[in-house]
Each structure stands twice: as structure tokens, then as C-alpha cells.
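Notes from the 1:1 (GR / supervisor)

We went over the backlog. Supervisor wanted to see one worked example end to end before approving the batch request, so GR pasted a single chain during the call. The sequence is below; no edits were made to it. Supervisor asked that the structure be written out right there so they could see what the output format looks like.
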Amino acid sequence: MGFITRQSTCDLLNKISLVLLLHLFIFVSESRADKNAGDNSVPAIFVFGDSTSDPGNNNFIGTSFKSNFPPYGKDFTNHTATGRFTNGLLANDFIARYVGVKDYVPPYLDPSLDIKELATGVSFASAGSGFDPLTPTISNVISLSKQLEYFKEYKRKLEAGIGKEKTKHVITNALFIVCAGTNDFIVNYYTLPIRRRSYDLQAYMDFLLKQVHQFMEDLIDGGARRIGVPGMTPIGCLPIVITLYSSNPITNRTCIESLSSVAKDYNIKLQKELYSLQLCNAKSGSRIAYLDSYTLMQDIVTNSSKFGFKVADRGCCGTGIIEAAFICNRGSVLCSNTSNYVYWDSIHPTERVYRLAVEAFRPTLDFIINR
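Structure output shown during the call:
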């Protein structure tokens, strides 16, 4: 007689109920779409991922992939270059404001954080990281597994400061955001074709999703109950990708559709994985949801004027076609009006795009936090 494992049981339940769950999720999300923020029921926010979520953790590690210098932070409070890879706020800062927790999500590795700041949440994200364990080694940054270790360390600090019961309440009711994947494809699979030697594209997607599954299970085992996972954006529209893969990167700045379709296909698989995780962990009170970054970003890039943008094929910093991290620096020439640009550098969106993204996420965020 074979053993019935947790995973095999979940797979069976998923096959039976996935479609029903998807329709239920859509119904609940749409029914909440017109609600305002209401009373705050979220005591903290915790963030894991890559440069779209790193508010400055890379400042405290030995990597060259940093952004704690001008012109980064140009539109942040006091024009401070915090280590965020944009001109101002990240999406997670806007999410923290929307759920009423705090104005800025700080980096966990900042030694100046007091217990009050820790208690309302931090980001463990590291620019350059990814779900594939190999990806963070390329830039010598913090892996997702190490970010989980930091989360465990964080819980011990919080228990020492406010006690076990209060810590449990914070973790159980907190909002968790997990955002990674782009570096796995752009850096690891395509630019430095390390994984392509061992995996075809579909096999690599499946490999990544196994990493996602394990990470999410570990997060849930650690107490997380409200989790949002943004999908990948159309990576073929990143200015640096256009530069690398266009037949003529100076005159032909259109999106590389073959690469954007990779992100789209991955997102479809990711959604199924998250619905499966939601189904298998429903009894614990978990709410796990996909945040659709792809659709919004595709719309912004292809219909930029509709959103008030004038430039979508290059970043504001320097030429906008290659500069990022230390290549976007004090000596770089900047665009005259950041709000006209979709991208800040050749990889990362401007603050205004992050604001639009969170506005689009609100119905799903309300579903996750059950309000």
C-alpha cells in the first residue's frame, strides 16, 4: 500500500476543486472591489523578493548591486537614496499605506530599527535575488531561503521584545508579499544561460514553481496566513531587454514579445500553483492570492498616453537603455520630468507606476486581508 502524502492529497483536491476555487476567488474579489480601506486589521507587513521589493537590505551586504546613491531616491523624502531601486517609493510602501500600517517598509538588516518599527513589519527582500537558489549567487545577494532564515530570526527578536502571544498575533494577521522571478529568467536563464544547459523552458518553469511551492509552505509553517504574490511583468518590455535582444536597439525599441510570452506562460502556471496552495491550506485560515502585475504593466507600456506617460521604451536615467545600479549614478543625465517615464532606469519602474499597480491590486488585497 502506498503512502498518501500531504502533496499527493493536495494534488487530488486541486484536480477536483481548482475551477470552483478560481470562480469563487474571482467572485469574492469583485464583490470587494468597491470597498474602501475601512478599519485596519493588519498589524504588520512582511516582504520577500528582489529589487522591486528591496528598500535597502543590499546596503548592508557585500554586493555591487546597490542603489544607495543619487540619483536613486530623487523623489523620496529629503531626496534620500535609501537603497530602493527607483526614484521614490516602492509598491510595498504604497501597500503599507493602503492597509494602514506605516508609510515606509524598512529593510530588516538596518541595525537602527527599534522594536516598535520591527513590530509593524519589514522587508527581507534583496535586489538580484530569485526563487532559483542559483540566481542570488550570481550577484552575491540574499537568497529566498536566507530571507526565510532572517524571518525566523526576526520572530525571535520580536518575541523577546513583546512576548510570544503578541508576536503570534502579529504574524498571523500580517500581510505577506512575495515578489521574485524576473532575475531567474532574465539573468540566470537567458543572459547567463546557466540553467539552459540543464532545462528547457517548460522544465525550468516547473523547477521554479517547485521552489515557489516549497517557499510558500515554509512561510505558512512559519505562521503566515495572508499572502499576496505578484506575477511577473512583461519582461520583454524592460528597456534593458529591448537593448539586449532587439535587432536594432537604437531605432527599434518595441517589446520583445517572445520574452514577454515567457512571463505570461509562467504567470498562468503560478496562478494554478497558488490556487492549489490556497486550497490545501484553507483549513488553517490562509488566504493566498495572485496579484496581476502583467496585465497592468502591459497596458501601461502599450497604451502609455492613456496613463499620462510619454516614454515607455527607456528609463529616465542616462540613455535609459542600459543603465541600472552603479551604472545609473551621480554622473548620469536625468530626464526632465520623471512622471513622464514608465521606467526609472533600464529595469525598474518609476514610483508613479508602483502607485498605479497598488491601486489595481486593492480588490485582491482586500480579499487577502478579508475585509
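Supervisor's comment: Residues 6-234+258-303+351-368 form a domain with the Rossmann fold fold (CATH 3.40.50).
Batch request approved.
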